[in-house]
Structure formats: structure tokens, C-alpha cells
Q: What sequence folds into this?
């Protein structure tokens, strides 16, 4: 079930892996007017950034469209529709035939589908997963992003080796639609989220689906207890606000302290994830490897392919060995420092001993290349998968779709910032762009303090127990006590008031 949905993550990974390599292919540069002369580097950087970042604009709006669709028609339907939208966008990109305007339109349409899927996938998985392995299952989303990036890197490499002319970039652009086709096919075989069914008052369907994905009979105590938790939480949420319009949900999100804290944490984590600089490398890895001294387009694409393999393998290792044992908080803390050190070394190398054209890469340069791969591994052990796990599990049921949509939109907004700014930073911020690496390094170090002071541990908690962690349950109990207190006096047969004892409930 999780892998079926996570092909929606592969949409994202395939795109960021494809476009970075395509932008360096000689046939693409000639067809779409990207200048190759060194003196026109800034012009090339601006055009490359526009092409790469147009997708993020579509992704930003796609998150909110998918949130509405996922709440109204279900998580499954939203994923299928976003898969079809992505296919349309990829076809337009492949058939642009040198029209830069058509390329922009295709990438924006594909972005609507990619962004929508990025919001629905972690939502769908977290609502289906048992709490004991929820981190690992939700983290598969990041694994599929890394897998898509790796596959796209090798498609680019194979295209330049074995294809000629326009086919070298048309094939990679068309291949972006493959994960979308698989997503649509796989999701048609899956069931709707039981928590969405419960929220829609389809309790019989919710019980049947939950029993199926837990592989237990519907009358099993585990299934009945989970359904009761879902029912209790929905009742508590209705008690707090009641309405279900967008205005009601936003009021519930930002006026209740526990919900507001969860929304702000989600936004903060997604900003931090992008400011590590990971997508700067994902989008522009060939250019970065060239700046570090590697020669030739095919060599740069080969190194980029190895980078993709490292990302996929380390993410898989994290999911198998650490996602539900190391914990969310510790994973974020140690990788903040590790990523910062890797970026800092790269920046210092480019500043102190930059590669010289025509000369061999020195040992310090090879270690800088190793630091790129180390950075990829560190990211996959913390800020890559953990952010998606965290923002999909902490919101309350009524607000989960909206909360994840806001978090995903924030991620795409800052993804856009990074994709748009990085080529210019590499071209202008210091010699060979060393300042870009220093800036990302500083962000990584500062994230350690953000996590240390503001991020609580959620490992092993059920989705319904997140209200306890963030203090919303206490608010509900207080409202119940006040309600009972107002109606807690009555007149007895003797005409005197009878005071009822305050009702106390013991949480299971």
C-alpha cells in the first residue's frame, strides 16, 4: 500500500533528477537557446533557473488544490487525478520542440500534479499505517524520491551515451511520466484511507478497510480499539469548533494553541529542509561537479548518477535500521551538524584552493567530491524522510489534510527559492560559488538549535495521542468539565439544590 502511493514521490524525484541533467545537454541548450559561452554564464544561469523553477510554481498551487480534493473526494481519488495531471504536463514538455513558452507551460502543469501528490502521499500513508512502523512506512516516500532521482540521473547518462540529437533530451523528459502511469495503476488497486472514511461517517467502510490493512477480523479488539480512538478524536474536534468550512478549519488551526504549534512546527521543518541546500545539489549536480573540477558532460552525469545511488541506499538503510528506533528528534539533531560540516568543507575548498582548468583534481578536491556524497547520506538519515514523517503524523484528524497541504506548499515555495537562486549564487557569490556552500552550511548548523528547543519526540505515539502531546486533550477535558459544571446543579424533591460530582474520565 505504501509503495503504491509512494510512486507519487517518485514523480518529484524523477523531475529533479531529469531537469538538472537535461539543462547541460548540448542538444537541449542549442534547441532552447541556452548560451554556452563562458562570458554569458549569468544569462545561462537565469534561463536554467527559470526552466527548473517553473515546476515549483505549479507545485505550490497543486498542494492546496489537492488538499481540497483529498478532503472532498478522498485521498485515493486525489492521487489518481494528480497522476493524470502529471502525465499531461510531461507530454507537453516532451513535445515542446524548442518552444520555451511551451516548456514553461508543461512544467507548470506537471508541477500541479507533482505538488498535489507530494501533499497527499504522506497523508494517505500515515492514516493507514500502524503506529509501530508508521515512521518507516511514511519514510518510504523519501526513498521513492531518492530512487526517482537516481533513475533519472542514469536515464540522462544513458541518453548522452546511446542517443543522438533531440532524442538525448526528449527521452528523459518523456520518462518523467512513467512513475505517474504506475501511480495511477497501483492506486486503482488500493482502498481509501479508513480515517477519511470515518470522517465522512462511513463507519462500516472504515471498519472493513482497517481490518483489511491490519490483516485482522473487524471484531478483533485491536481494530475496535483503533476505531474507537478515531471516533473519540473526531468527537473532541467537533466539540472544540464544530464547523467544517475552510474558515472554521483555519480558525481551529491558529486559535487553539496546540494546533497552532503543530502548524508552525510543520512550516518551520519544511523551510529548514529546503535550506539545507539538498535540492541545490539535486537540480544542479552536474554544474556543481564541474565547478569542483570534473571534466566532460558524461563524467559529470556519471558522478551525478553515483550521487543518486548514494541517496537511495542511505535512505533505505535509514528506513530499515533507524526510522522507528532512533526517533525523529535525534535523527534531525545529529544530521544538522553533519550536513553543515560537509557543506562547510566544500565551501572552504572552493574558496581556498579552487580547481584550475586543465589541471588534475587535487586530493583535497576529491575529498570535496566525497563530501557531496556524504551530505546526501546525512540528508537521507534525517532531514529528508523525517520531515515528511513528522508533518503527516502530528496534526489532528480534521486538520491533517490542511496542515500537510500548508507544509507541502511551504516546501515547494522554498524549493522554488532554492532552485531559482542557486545558479545565480554559484555564478556570483564568490569565486566558483563558494559562498553558496557557506550559506547552506550556516543554515544547517542553525537547524540544530531549532530542533533542540522546539521539536518534541513523537516516536511510538498513535495519531490520536498527538493531542495529548500538544495539550489539546487537556483543553477538551476542561471544556467538558465547564459544560458539566454549568449543568451540574439540580433541585431535589425537598426543594434544595443538589450538586453533582464533577465527572472524571480516565484516558485509555
A:
Amino acid at each position: 500500500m505504501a509503495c503504491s502511493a509512494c510512486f507519487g514521490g517518485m514523480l518529484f524525484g524523477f523531475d529533479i533528477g531529469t531537469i538538472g541533467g537535461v539543462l547541460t545537454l548540448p542538444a537541449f541548450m542549442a534547441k532552447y537557446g541556452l548560451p554556452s559561452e563562458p562570458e554569458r554564464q549569468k544569462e545561462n544561469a537565469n534561463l536554467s533557473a527559470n526552466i527548473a523553477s517553473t515546476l515549483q510554481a505549479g507545485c505550490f498551487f497543486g498542494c492546496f488544490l489537492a488538499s481540497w480534493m483529498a478532503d472532498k473526494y478522498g485521498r485515493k481519488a486525489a492521487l489518481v487525478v494528480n497522476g493524470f495531471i502529471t502525465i499531461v504536463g510531461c507530454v507537453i514538455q516532451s513535445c515542446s520542440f524548442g518552444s520555451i513558452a511551451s516548456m514553461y507551460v508543461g512544467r507548470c502543469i506537471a508541477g500541479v500534479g507533482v505538488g498535489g501528490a507530494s501533499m497527499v502521499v504522506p497523508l494517505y500513508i500515515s492514516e493507514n499505517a500502524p503506529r509501530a512502523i508508521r515512521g518507516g512506512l511514511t519514510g518510504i516516500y523519501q526513498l521513492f524520491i531518492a530512487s526517482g532521482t537516481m533513475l533519472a540521473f542514469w536515464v540522462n547518462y544513458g541518453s548522452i551515451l546511446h542517443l543522438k540529437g533531440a532524442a538525448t533530451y526528449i527521452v528523459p523528459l518523456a520518462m518523467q511520466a512513467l512513475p505517474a502511469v504506475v501511480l495511477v495503476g497501483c492506486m486503482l488497486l488500493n482502498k481509501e484511507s479508513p480515517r477519511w472514511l470515518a470522517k465522512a461517517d462511513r463507519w462500516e467502510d472504515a471498519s472493513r478497510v482497517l481490518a483489511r490493512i491490519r490483516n485482522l477480523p473487524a471484531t478483533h479488539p485491536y481494530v475496535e480499539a483503533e476505531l474507537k480512538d478515531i471516533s473519540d478524536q473526531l468527537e473532541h474536534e467537533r466539540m472544540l469548533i464544530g464547523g467544517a468550512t475552510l474558515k472554521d478549519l483555519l480558525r481551529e488551526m491558529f486559535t487553539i494553541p496546540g494546533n497552532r504549534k503543530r502548524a508552525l512546527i510543520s512550516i518551520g521543518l519544511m523551510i529548514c529542509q529546503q535550506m539545507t541546500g539538498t535540492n541545490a545539489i539535486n537540480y544542479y549536480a552536474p554544474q556543481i561537479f564541474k565547478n569542483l573540477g570534473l571534466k566532460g558532460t558524461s563524467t559529470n552525469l556519471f558522478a551525478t548518477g553515483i550521487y543518486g545511488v548514494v541517496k537511495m541506499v542511505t535512505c533505505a538503510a535509514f528506513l530499515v535500521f533507524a526510522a522507528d528506533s532512533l526517533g525523529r528528534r535525534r535523527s534531525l539533531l545529529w544530521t544538522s551538524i553533519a550536513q553543515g560540516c560537509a557543506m562547510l568543507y566544500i565551501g572552504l575548498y572552493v574558496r581556498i584552493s579552487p580547481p584550475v582548468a586543465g589541471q588534475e583534481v587535487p586530493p583535497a578536491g576529491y575529498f570535496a567530491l566525497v563530501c557531496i556524497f556524504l551530505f546526501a547520506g546525512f540528508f537521507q538519515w534525517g532531514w529528508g524522510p523525517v520531515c515528511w514523517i513528522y508533518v503527516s503524523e502530528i496534526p489532528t484528524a480534521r486538520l491533517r489534510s490542511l496542515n500537510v497541504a500548508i507544509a507541502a506548499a511551504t516546501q515547494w515555495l522554498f524549493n522554488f527559492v532554492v532552485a531559482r537562486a542557486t545558479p545565480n549564487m554559484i555564478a556570483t557569490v564568490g569565486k566558483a560559488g563558494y559562498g553558496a556552500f557557506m550559506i547552506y552550511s550556516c543554515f544547517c548548523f542553525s537547524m540544530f538549535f531549532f530542533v533542540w528547543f522546539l521539536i518534541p519526540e513523537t516516536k511510538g505515539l498513535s495519531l490520536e495521542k498527538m493531542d495529548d502531546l500538544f495539550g489539546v486533550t487537556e483543553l477538551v477535558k476542561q471544556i467538558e468539565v465547564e459544560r458539566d459544571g454549568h449543568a451540574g446543579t439540580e433541585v431535589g424533591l425537598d426543594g434544595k439544590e443538589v450538586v453533582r460530582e464533577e465527572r472524571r474520565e480516565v484516558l485509555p
Notes: Residues 27 and 165 are 6 Å apart (CA to CA). The chain has a mean pLDDT of 80.
